[in-house]
Amino acid sequence: MASTCPPAQQIFALQPNRTFFRTLIVTEKRVRLAHYDRGGMYLTPFINYHSNPTTLILFMLGLTSHDESNLGLDTSVQWTSDPDTGRKVAGTLEAPNVRGETVVYNLNMEKTPFVRPGIVGRGTTCWHATDPDTGKSVLIKDAWRGGDRASESENESEFLADARGIPGIVQMISHQGNCAAASDFRPSDFKANAGYQNRIKARVVLEECAEPIWNFTSRHQVISALRDAIAAHRKLVERGIIHRDISPWNILLGHPGAPEGLRGILIDLDMAMRAESGMSLDEVDPQTGTRTYQSISVLLANDPRNDPIPPHDYLDDLESFLYVLCHILLGFKKPGEPSKPTPDLIAGWDDPDAKTAMTNKVVLMAEGYPEYEFPQIEEFWGPPCRELLEGMRVYIADVVYQKSKIRAKKSKVSTDERFEMWAAFVEKNLVRSYDHIDSLFRTALAEIAREDAEDAVQAHAESQTSPRADCKRSLEEEPQPTLPRKRTRRHA
């Protein structure tokens, strides 16, 4: 859709309260209406407006209506514009509060709403606002669910309700299901084409977290955030929920000074599913998740020879956490400085061909990363992060190998027996996997803290070495800024 209609995509991106968009395709004799929404595109037949001018007039009246809902705008969002410049200066959004009452939230105009790119799909939009009752900052999330999940439009709110009280999981304040449906914007006799999905819009109000994990400022901060997000994921699994969409966009930093458990926040339970003993109750969906961070098992679900497809389990999500860790350590030279272009090792995981993406990940599991291509591992991240990455890679690589052995028994055991072997492997390693990975993170964090403390002592000592007379300055003299000091790395 993006390649065939970039102007329409821009309209959705720049008008975050848009639910659909309509335009006309006009020739010398004929006209047709093009309609775009989260379910896809709808085209009317061509109509000869010379013989049927009324239809053209009705089209024009509809497209120039003063009723915002007829124009495809969500009227629960309202803007105040500067009369001189026409720019939006304030905005409000109607949503339920903690008591389920519809109230008006004031939008934070200093923070741009997040809008998922593309037209067709979830169309996730996140608004920064202020709770009128408490004065606290909140995040209001709109998302369109489709396909098999359209009838379960409140799934995320149900999962968030079950996750209340888990440190490291974003906390829900309220929710509103079935805000709108893509089918409402279509003719009553509309016949869906192949691939069309009716999508249902739901809205949740969440406690606002801090920054995306990409905005980390130190080694300790980002490794702490990942450690706490994995710990939160463990609690989620213990409550019978699998996340299924682990990616950097779904991991936020905790607020400054947050205690252990709240230094990293796991968000976005759109793709979550119920689980038992760490396994989802349905087969893997290869279209679920973010390609770069999908596990090898999920990618294999695209192969028709991989039958039956095993369920998505917590080990798939832990593998996704590994790819997130890789992306941060290998994709950033230091805070705020991502490698450009994206390293080939990571870019290869995003290949649209599932088999190619899987092969690139198998190479990582078998060989690790080429150290000479990533000097930042020694120059900035240091031995603690290097050993954390290697320890997690080795552990997940063994998981991938053990799963492959079960697949290889296809000709020797029945489907039911193979499924039982898979379930037994997943359940047996549940506690051990989280304990082992948590230990790796705690060891790395302790070493980082020790190195940072030594660096601080050394920096203080160096600041005291100059003669005292050289340090004197008059009271009127402005203090000079302290320049950042390059950390001396201690190699293992």
UniProtKB/TrEMBL annotation:
The keyword Transferase applies. Residues 453-492 are annotated as: Disordered. It comes from the Eukaryota. Residues 109-483 form the Protein kinase domain. Keywords: Kinase, Transferase. Pfam families: Pkinase_fungal. GO terms for molecular function: ATP binding; protein kinase activity. This is Kinase-like domain-containing protein. It comes from Ephemerocybe angulata. The lineage of its organism: Eukaryota, Fungi, Dikarya, Basidiomycota, Agaricomycotina.
